[in-house]
Task: inverse folding
């Protein structure tokens, strides 16, 4: 029952976490951060808010709309971070551009977006991810994807599969088309939604040579195994290079034994104002929306000074929690009736020991230990009681 | 098991026929008010849902795929794949009102009240044209709203236009044409490539055959 005395509202899209939920969240965060660290990534902690103009850089109109904005006392516009990639790009572009490359950073923390309710969408959400900066190679892309997969495994999700596409393929295929912004948006949306009928209609309404028309028209069907790459029509060298690059990435994933966890998808084109190369999204059994998403963004850091290529991904911690069945217990090992030297020793050894501070009698303490699901009760007289 | 959500109402019968023509067993869907029909032999479970709910089921992955009208799909504004349109469920979403609003007079009015079952699409339509409107969401018999003075205009689907005429309303503008669409959850599309591809090809095949028969 929820007390009516405390009928305090909570804004849409945020949540209170405590007891097992809080423990489960931390367990997921630790498993992910631990994996990132073991691959040589060090933590980066950007501020929770900064100037809107920095965060809006290259963010694309949709993300910009979704940022929480407010003013500081000088009247400058601030914004809460909507992801970690843009703050990291700012830090690298302004402070770390002359360091030995590559830079490997990971992050775990809240990000904020004013989003309409949609599957798996919250307004304060937790991202755990990496940025691999200063390398443009297929090895870098494969490392990012393999690390995302390995991290999901470490978080207890084994049945995953990633879509893998390349934004460069669609960019190359539509290059010099001089489409109006509306046509371009509609074309990309039809491709992204694999809406072949709408795509065919759109292609009929714009002037286009037949090779490009065929290349674009078949995009919704170009998904599955590497055979999807064989079927791609390449209208120029850039398009060919984009397809070859995907082959290279898949070949390198084989070194990790992870090539079978990829579904190639050339229609993938979300966030085109941002991504310049590989694009990937991770899905797990039992969750209808992506748990991880990432890609290559070679032009972002240039906005902050130096042109440095980079690839990265973010895992949605709340989404991992939804898919993860494993229980995390927060039950103490011991409930002690009073504080004594045994307590201190046990704690030093890493056991969780809770000491009664309400002067409970034996019956009350036993009942409390039952509610807390403690494994042992240590009585004042030195007896140890093992609970079942 | 593949879970497929089918929209209730006028799309249900042709959707059942479509899957029956592919060999699925959907007898339960016709005979009863069952909401879940299992065809264990084909590893399929059909969920019969309200049209507006089908896009949500598919977006959340409660269903791997579904058949729904494009009207409900656009209203739902969900992130799903929509690889096929199907040759049934044709209708149009229109703005309608009393005859005095013909000749675009309604565009000049400030503070229009519009009754609809499609608030999102309606809002998009009016704001894209710089028209201020008050949208009243109703759940049935939208045509009643202008008659009783609840609204100036309505936005609703029309098939033949008979209902509009019978209620003394005329069509003022077409927002879009709609027909049935086959939609797919993005996770299922990635996790179950062969099954989804097989289903898309089979459904597409029935359509091609119909075309050939002319």
Result:
């Amino acid at each position: 029952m929820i007390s009516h005395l405390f009928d305090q509202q909570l804004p849409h899209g945020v949540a209170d976490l405590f007891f097992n939920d809080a423990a489960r969240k931390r367990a997921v965060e630790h498993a992910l951060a631990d994996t990132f660290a073991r691959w040589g990534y060090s933590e980066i902690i950007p501020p929770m808010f900064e100037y809107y103009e920095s965060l809006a850089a290259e963010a694309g109109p949709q993300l910009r709309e979704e940022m929480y904005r407010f003013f500081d006392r000088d009247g400058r516009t601030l914004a809460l971070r909507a992801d970690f990639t843009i703050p990291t790009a700012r830090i690298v572009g302004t402070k770390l551009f002359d360091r030995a490359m590559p830079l490997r950073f990971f992050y775990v923390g809240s990000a904020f977006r004013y989003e309409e309710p949609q599957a798996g969408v919250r307004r304060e959400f937790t991202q755990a991810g990496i940025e691999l900066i200063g390398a443009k190679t297929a090895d870098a892309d494969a490392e990012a994807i393999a690390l995302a997969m390995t991290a999901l495994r470490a978080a207890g999700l084994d049945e995953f599969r990633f879509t893998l596409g390349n934004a460069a393929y669609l960019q190359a295929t539509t290059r010099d088309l001089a489409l109006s912004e509306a046509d371009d948006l509609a074309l990309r949306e039809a491709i992204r939604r694999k809406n072949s009928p709408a795509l065919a209609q759109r292609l009929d309404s714009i002037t286009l040579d037949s090779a490009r028309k065929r290349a674009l028209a078949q995009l919704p069907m170009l998904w599955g195994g590497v055979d999807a790459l064989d079927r791609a029509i390449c209208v120029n060298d850039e398009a060919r290079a984009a397809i070859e690059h995907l082959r290279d990435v898949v070949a390198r994933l084989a070194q990790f034994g992870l090539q079978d966890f990829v579904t190639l998808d050339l229609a993938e084109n979300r966030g085109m104002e941002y991504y310049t190369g590989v694009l990937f999204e991770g899905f797990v059994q039992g969750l209808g929306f992506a748990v991880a998403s990432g890609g290559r963004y070679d032009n972002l850091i240039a906005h902050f000074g130096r042109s440095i290529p980079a690839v990265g991904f973010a895992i949605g911690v709340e989404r991992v929690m939804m898919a993860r069945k494993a229980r995390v217990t927060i039950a103490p090992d011991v409930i002690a009736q009073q504080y004594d030297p045994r307590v201190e020793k046990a704690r030093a050894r890493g056991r969780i020991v809770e000491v009664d501070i309400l002067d409970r009698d034996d019956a009350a303490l036993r009942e409390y230990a039952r509610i807390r699901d403690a494994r042992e009760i240590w009585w004042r007289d030195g007896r140890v009681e093992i609970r079942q | 098991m593949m879970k497929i959500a089918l929209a209730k109402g006028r799309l249900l019968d042709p959707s059942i026929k479509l899957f029956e023509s592919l060999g699925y067993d959907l007898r339960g869907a016709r005979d009863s008010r069952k909401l879940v029909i299992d065809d264990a032999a084909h590893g399929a479970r059909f969920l019969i849902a309200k049209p507006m709910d089908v896009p949500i089921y598919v977006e959340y992955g409660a269903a791997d795929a579904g058949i729904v009208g494009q009207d409900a799909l656009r209203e739902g504004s969900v992130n799903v794949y929509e690889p096929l349109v199907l040759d049934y469920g044709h209708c149009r979403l229109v703005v309608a009102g009393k005859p005095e609003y013909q000749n675009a007079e309604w565009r000049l009015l400030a503070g229009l009240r519009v009754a609809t079952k499609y608030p999102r699409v309606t809002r998009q339509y009016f704001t894209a044209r710089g028209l201020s409107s008050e949208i009243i969401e109703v759940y049935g018999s939208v045509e009643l709203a202008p008659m009783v003075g609840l609204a100036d205009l309505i936005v609703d689907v029309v098939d033949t236009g008979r209902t509009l005429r019978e209620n003394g309303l005329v069509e003022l503008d077409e927002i879009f044409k709609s027909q049935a669409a086959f939609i797919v959850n993005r996770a299922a599309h990635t996790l179950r490539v062969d099954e989804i591809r097989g289903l898309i090809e089979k459904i597409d095949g029935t359509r091609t055959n119909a075309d050939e028969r002319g």
